Amino acid sequence: MNIKSLLLGSAAALAAVSGAQAADAIVAAEPEPLEYVRVCDAFGTGYFYIPGTETCLKIGGYVRVQVDGRSDFDLNGQSGGYRTNTRGQIAVEAKSDTEYGTLASKITLRANTNTSNGYSITIPAGTPGAGTYSGSQANNDFYLEETYLQLGGLRVGYFYNYFDNGLPGETVLSDGGPWSNGGLGGDTLNNSVRYTYDAGSFSLYGQVDAFNSQAGFKTDDAGTDDQIGVNGVVTGKFGGVTLDFFAGYDFDSEEAAFASTLTAAIGPGSLGVFAAYATGANRYFDAAEWTIGAEYAIKLNDKFSIAPGAQYWDNVAFDGNDLDGGDAWRVGVTADYKITTNLAAKATINYTDVDNGVASDDRWDGFLRLQRSF
Q1: Where does the UniProt annotation place the signal sequence (predicted)?
Q2: Least confident of 63-72, 92-101, 115-124
Q3: Is 314 helix (H, G, I), strand (E, B) or coil?
Q4: Which residues are registered as beta bridge partners of 229?
């Protein structure tokens, strides 16, 4: 055997061994691609896609610290003083497109450190649904605020009605008066069904409300078989002017309420006018037979604005469902200051004078608030 034959044989042997090892080689698997959170801009700012789905999610809320103050008010036995409260709120919204329109839902959780933030509604004896109803908000645990689901124009759940909208300042009160008249009012958040038709510059909705959503079963024996209201709103937008008209009917009291709000961009600010009329005390409005109020929110610069306002109520005396006699008026001013992005301060002071037809009194009230939103 010569050297040439030996080298060729060795090369063939090495090739055979290498081929056998190659057949048994382990190939590393490709790593799974990471799915990063994607921004969803189809429904506005703040939304992102839930990984692996086409549902867009938005998480927001605020932390608020507030000090309230008031003077004595003999008409309802309220003593003057101050109170402090810290509130936390978290809102989660989810939206996605479907063949029936946008599918949306909202969950709002809120808690207060001040345990007097609940409510109590008393319906006088002899009035349909007589009794006292209290909400569960009077504690410092988290509780449900506005929470609902919506498909296209149909909304079902727990949400506010028209009388919680209000104007920019803190003087004009759309959901009642700054005194206790023993009536039915303040019922602005209930389990409801609403359908909205929105054509851009023109919209309208119809709504059915189940009043006192926390009061348990409504039965004939308890005298709470109805506790249903129906209402509707028509809204028109004309350039810088927005005008709406509300009409609602309370089947328990068999009374109706009507209201309208006008807002218009004028000069350096926005003018807001609110008016309401009730045929008698009802769940939608019972502060007076009628009221009218106005506020003008003046933007002094990019950070600071003030909103002076005034309101008048006529026939504030409460007798059964009748509103007859007395009047009240209120003036005040609200200041808003943007400290930095998502951090703002608000302060208000108001003076109210009430004559209920039997006695009269006046009071001062206001608050100082610091709020961080996200």
Answers
A1: 1-22
A2: 115-124
A3: strand
A4: 209, 250
